[in-house]
Write a structure and sequence with these properties.
Elements: H1 30-36, H2 59-75, E1 91-94, H3 102-109, E2 116-121, H4 122-125, H5 129-134, E3 140-143, H6 152-163, E4 167-170
Parallel strand pairs: 1-4, 2-3, 2-4
Length: about 170
């Protein structure tokens, strides 16, 4: 057998339906267990500015995503390759951030549901009442990093979203 041949069938395996979260989380470290409340200890309170159910997107999210997808795929003639390699939720999308519209192109490339959550600075994006009402409906949740350090509440929110079967986009 040559080095390029495979002894096992390399066809893609049957994927779990995208309508339900995975049964067991892959990561089960102590930080994760403390945040989501595994065991006798209750978990950290879920941020009220986060849309809680990734498999029931808000109406605004569904409508805006449909419009953005139409624009991305028809006006820019974008083509997505390798969609069959996307794992079942939960997972993290890690991307470089080049411009303000990156999120539109990335979210358009992924199937729905679940909601693809992303984070934004609390002091700039969530600084007005109308923004605190509107922005979370699109899967954006607040973080407050300080001098290059991680925001513990933001990390807790990521763990909680992954535990609920969500997808998190990180720039």
């Amino acid at each position: 057998m040559s080095s390029t041949e495979s002894s096992a069938d390399s066809s893609p395996a049957e994927e779990a339906p995208a309508s339900a979260p995975a049964a067991e989380p892959t990561y089960r470290g102590p930080e994760f267990q403390q945040v989501v409340g595994v065991g006798a200890e209750p978990g950290v309170d879920f941020d009220p500015l986060v849309h809680a159910d990734p498999f029931r997107p808000h109406l605004f999210y569904r409508v805006v995503l449909a419009i953005v997808r139409w624009i991305v795929f028809h006006l820019w003639r974008t083509r997505v390759e390798g969609r069959e390699n996307i794992p079942a939720a939960p997972f993290i999308i890690a991307s470089n951030h080049q411009a303000w519209y990156d999120t539109a192109f990335i979210v358009s490339a992924f199937p729905t549901p679940p909601v693809i959550y992303t984070m934004a600075r609390r002091d700039t994006v969530f600084n007005r009442r109308w923004k605190r009402w509107l922005v979370p409906k699109f899967g954006v949740f607040p973080i407050q990093p300080a001098r290059g350090e991680l925001d513990a509440r933001g990390v807790a929110t990521v763990y909680q979203l992954l535990h609920r079967g969500g997808v998190v986009l990180v720039f």
